[in-house]
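In practice, a research group might receive sequence data for several interacting partners and want a quick structural hypothesis before committing to experiments. The following worked case mirrors that situation: the sequences arrive first, and a predicted assembly follows.
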Amino acid sequence: RKEVEQDPGPFNVPEGATVAFNCTYSNSASQSFFWYRQDCRKEPKLLMSVYSSGNEDGRFTAQLNRASQYISLLIRDSKLSDSATYLCVVNMRNTGKLIFGQGTTLQVKP
Amino acid sequence: DTGVSQDPRHKITKRGQNVTFRCDPISEHNRLYWYRQTLGQGPEFLTYFQNEAQLEKSRLLSDRFSAERPKGSFSTLEIQRTEQGDSAMYLCASTPLEGQGPDTQYFGPGTRLTVL
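A structural hypothesis for the assembly, expressed as tokens:
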């Protein structure tokens, strides 16, 4: 079983749609949680950190449920430019190494 | 450019050859990480340094792989006797140990290795 599991998709949605991604993690020693965005053949870039209280950045909302070891990302009013792979990431206590999920591919269509 | 840089950006080599990649982290970032990413997968941790000390190596890092960070600044990753299964994107990331969130890692553009 992978330490971080995501549905790889692809998710094909029309512009303006709301789309939600979920992931689960298995290691309770996970300390911090993130969503990274990766465009084709580019490096991952931090989209947002994820907190238990939930956090929002414009059209993006992230949520963490530590009890269920579950992380979510909601994108509202999808834009064509949101098309990318979204990586669910946990940071391990002490070492700081990042454990990535497989990534979920989003394709927003006109 | 004050971001993480990697060199070369692309490398094509024949099976059995040795290759070396370089990563220059953001200045004064104490921690430096190497990851490998194959097609359709997320990046996988290989190893990391805190200053010049290599503190952890993944079991993915076979004895053909070696990494160094001799002066606590740039790092090199060498693969000896390359195999076709080594074909991947090799990503470097750095983070400060203290200050602005040690959790946040900044990635370089990666070195894409193709082994023929």
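Before designing any experiment, note the following. The interface with chain A takes residues 31, 33, 35, 40-45, 48, 55-56, 91, 93, 95, 102-105, 107-110, 112 of chain B (CB under 8 Å). Chain B has a mean pLDDT of 92.
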